[in-house]
Specification:
- The protein has one domain.
- Helix 1 runs parallel beside helix 4 and helix 3 packs antiparallel against helix 4.
- It is mainly alpha-helical and 159 residues long.
- The longest helix has 44 residues.
- The chain is 82% helix and 0% strand.
- 13% of the residues are buried.
Length: 159
Amino acid sequence: MGFKVSSIKDTIDQVNQFFSVFRAVLTGFGVIAVVVSCIGMFNTLTISLIEKTREIGIMKSLGTTKKDIRRIFLSEALLIGVIGGIAGIIISYLLGEFFNASIYALAKSTGNTPVKIFVFPIELVVTALILSILISVLTGAYPSRRASRISALNALRYE
């Protein structure tokens, strides 16, 4: 029967290793979420293209250029990205504050020192919003290009 001795450095290394694994798992979930959202957004824009085919034909017959059609679809993608990015930031912030309050209450009730686990640096918020916008515009590039190449005659025949 012996005692196990460990230094503060060993404890800190173990905690850092735990957080590294935790960060990697969260990054994996984030990547999966981005891929799923890209597929969903691509699907939404493609369905929008199919639904607006006749409208595109009418706009083209009235003189709308390919560039204008592309801008319409890219604007739609941009709007989806901005709204999605802002909604994601707000939900993340609220969940983080909820967990901080829960951890604070738990620490206080057990007599421990309360700590703040989730923080939201402005750099992270700006990066998340920029990535959201960038990914949405890249996802909308193909449907917008496809919409701009629709023949006015074929689009007017489309039912």
